[in-house]
């Protein structure tokens, strides 16, 4: 073990003489990134500024205990919050909360595997359907013609007259116009790039075969980009990353509070997302071996907060009742104005939002899964820190957002973690416990899909009551296998009982992975909010659970969730199992459809206009439904 240092002064407690202007270098391992910072800066912030992925839920305020990093030498002395969040063994090994450490000297810091975010499992694909291609972008080749043969005609007129009548009138910007005289006299001819009725670029020679666009799904946790060939509809490349805004908190509310009445905080969140989109653009272009300048359009879906951060819109009132967004409708901005490194005048089409926290990602899900088409009632549920859900048939579309909180993303759970290598993702309880672990590694924690499995299976095995309380050993069913009984650990009061999901000695892990009574309560709060939201939608529509022809589980969590566990845990409406299906990254598919077809884009606009938003916040009916939905149904 390395040497433990005395507590370090923070930047605020250092004298000016000690700290003024001094810089230190922090080396983050295993990524091998060196960051030079002002002496005394908080280590957690240093990692964020340097693009190093350190886990967090609370955004650095010391309440989540997720941001631990390992020091192998010059170990800072533990502070009170280390004692609260870390075990004695972790403290002895040199783990510390990075949000409590001042970078007061050169340091070498290990970010634990599975604790960081860069390796989180990201879902790319989702349900899809066949559509006719009707892209907004078209290219028209204009062959060389000796200009002297066409006297008394301007360069712009020569270009315009090439176009079919239905595309006129057409507009051109000053920037593109300035390139025209040179290119129109080039013997290779030129290619006009049109977005609707606007010439957004002219290129030397015949480039008509190269037509690409990108569809982005910007989630609070991850960002996924799809590079599409607009001429064929083929997907050329997919790239994804963990949303780096999460250094300011997993919870949207945490990020909103950073940006509310704080233009600097908003600017930072905007810059982070633009920088990440540009990195993904570069990666996609490089994979498909095309220049980024040949990307002519972008479509975007995201929740309401991501939408505001992307456009750098004041999000102050989004976080305050009645949660008014700056704009609900679709919005188009030039890529160059937004700072995206593609064709400068390429339109960025941001799909419309619904209302409240129900954003264009839900519109994307509804578009992809044809919700609102046909007479049957179908429901889509996208589980994240907010559970967004929609219920529709052709006559009526309604949607709401339920405050699920971050438990299903592994936060506020004692050994919770994201769906990254080392996370237990599925659990079965029979005569003993069987687990699967992402990456086949020794388990280090529990992700959301396993949490739902655990509560469902504990209930099925009779180890937990309908109210979510662990049974005492004396209350267990008489036929409970002894191996299960041994996993129930009673420590005084019932609330201190916990269950060993994976024993260190069986799995080669460092310590047992356990689920506590408090974890079950957190899970109940999350699943109760989602179920209550679904019940209120059914009430609003005037139908009952059994009238549902289908429940679609969207998003990464919905995809990896076991539908049977979701049903048994009471997360979804109680309908036959064969009516529940995962639809994957349907929001991303919605963005792709809107990119490939202006007809689909118009459908998305109509969906957003027609969908009624049901406000749950402050609703007495929601509170009542929530109390019931906290319980386990069977
Ligand atoms: S406790 Fe450090 S980021 Fe939450």
Alpha carbon gyration radius: 27 Å
Shape: globular
Helix content: 25-40%
Arithmetic mean pLDDT: 90
What separation lies between the terminal Cα atoms? 50 Å
| Count of strand segments | 27
Q: Output the number of helix runs.
A: 21
CATH class of the domain at 212-350, named: Alpha Beta
Main β-sheet: number of strands, strand sense, barrel status? 6 strands, mixed
What would you say the CATH architecture of the domain at 212-350 is? 2-Layer Sandwich
How does this model look, in words?
The protein is globular, with a radius of gyration of 27 Å. Among the domains are: 16-110, Beta-grasp domain (Ubiquitin-like (UB roll), Roll); 137-204, Ubiquitin-like (UB roll), CATH 3.10.20.880; 212-350, 2-Layer Sandwich (Nucleotidyltransferase, domain 5). It is built from 21 helices and 27 strands. Strands 12-11-10-13-15-14 form a 6-stranded mixed sheet, sandwiched between helices. By secondary structure, it is of the alpha/beta class. The model is unreliable at 6-20 (pLDDT under 50). α12 crosses α19, α13 packs across α18 and α19 (586-596) crosses α20. FE2/S2 (inorganic) cluster binds next to loops.
